[in-house]
Design a protein that fits this description.
InterPro entries: Epimerase_deHydtase, NAD(P)-bd_dom_sf
Strand content: 15-25%
Oligomer: single chain
Pfam family, one: Epimerase
CATH architecture of the domain at 3-154 and 182-208 and 254-269: 3-Layer(aba) Sandwich
Domain NAD-dependent epimerase/dehydratase: 96-207
Shape: globular
Keywords: NAD
Helix content: 25-40%
CATH superfamily of the domain at 3-154 and 182-208 and 254-269: NAD(P)-binding Rossmann-like Domain
Number of helices: 11
Structural class: alpha/beta
Radius of gyration: 19 Å
CATH topology of the domain at 3-154 and 182-208 and 254-269: Rossmann fold
Protein name: Nucleoside-diphosphate-sugar epimerase
Order of helices and strands: EHEHEHEHEEHEEHEEHEHEHEHH
Length: 292
């Protein structure tokens, strides 16, 4: 039986889960709380509290997905389960690591692809580069069929701008030349499923849609869909922002996604933010339950 062992079974991994369960897979997911474990159990996942023994889950696994992000001390999965990974990853059919396009750094709005050198400027981006290298080194030692997925900004059910637009807290921060790439969580799920079906050990994929865009345009379109007044523009330099929020504007780039199309045959469900937001609003109005 095909079994996915998912480390850090969060938003993106949960979007993949129903695709696998529909094909008869077993999904085992780690989480950090009993409350989240109950939620995962209700979605058909076998939960394991992070840090507890995973010998049984690893023995049953045929595929492994790593979604947990690194911190200043490195990758938490490698810290907690290195020996188990070293002795088991080599026999897996597929191993996926979810990284971020932040590894590329700032390109002043220019286009980048998977061959672009990694020159991160943020602390989180540097952590990701180190984590990618650590997983690639582990794969080289063990023969694990590692695939790296560099994700752009994620949105989807439960993660759209509509609530802030409705309650008047949405902000249109304008920094000239600033653009971001994005990816709908359901497109992340279909790319992962396509890679599992067509494994290519060592491959690296950028996951983003076809339309990098300024953040104020996304907020503006959400307001238009809702029939709400357009939030006023705020100059980036003068805007009051937390250091975390401001750091997201430190890098500007347009990310190419050709490889997921040519190598995996993926046709994006939501090729731009307009398609994605229109669908999210439809679900909201239809009373579709969203997950976060």
């Amino acid at each position: 039986m095909k079994t996915l062992l998912s480390f850090g079974h969060g938003y993106s991994a949960r979007a993949l889960t129903p695709l696998l369960l529909a094909e008869g897979w077993t999904v085992i997911g780690t989480t950090r709380s009993a409350e989240k474990a109950d939620t995962l159990r209700g979605e058909g996942v076998e939960p394991v509290i992070f840090g507890e023994a995973l010998d049984d889950g690893m023995a049953r696994a045929t595929h492994v997905l790593i979604s947990a992000g690194p911190d200043e001390a490195g990758d938490p999965i490698l810290r907690a389960y290195l020996h188990l990974l070293e002795t088991n990853l080599g026999r897996m059919d597929w191993v996926g690591y979810l990284s971020t396009t932040g590894v590329y750094g700032d390109h002043a709005g220019g286009w980048i692809d998977e061959e672009t050198p990694l020159t991160p400027t943020t602390r989180r981006g540097k952590w990701r580069v180190e984590a990618e290298a650590a997983w690639q080194a582990l794969a080289a030692r063990t023969g694990a069929p590692l695939h790296v997925f560099r994700l752009a900004g994620i949105y989807g059910p439960g993660r759209g701008p509509f609530a802030k637009v409705r309650n008047g807290t949405a902000r249109r921060i304008v920094k000239p030349g600033q653009v971001f790439s994005r990816i709908h969580v359901e497109d992340i799920a279909q790319v992962l499923a396509a890679s599992i079906a067509r494994p290519d050990a060592g491959a690296i994929y950028n996951l983003c849609d076809d339309d990098p865009a300024p953040p104020q345009d996304v907020i503006g379109y959400a307001a238009e869909l809702l029939g709400q007044p357009l939030p006023p523009e705020e100059d980036f330099e003068a805007a009051e922002m937390t250091p975390m929020a401001r750091s997201f504007y430190a890098e500007s780039k347009r990310v190419r996604n050709d490889r997921i199309k040519t190598d995996l045959g993926v046709e994006l469900l939501y090729p731009d933010y307009r398609a994605g937001l229109t669908d999210l609003l439809r679900r909201d109005r239809d009373g579709v339950i969203t997950k976060t």
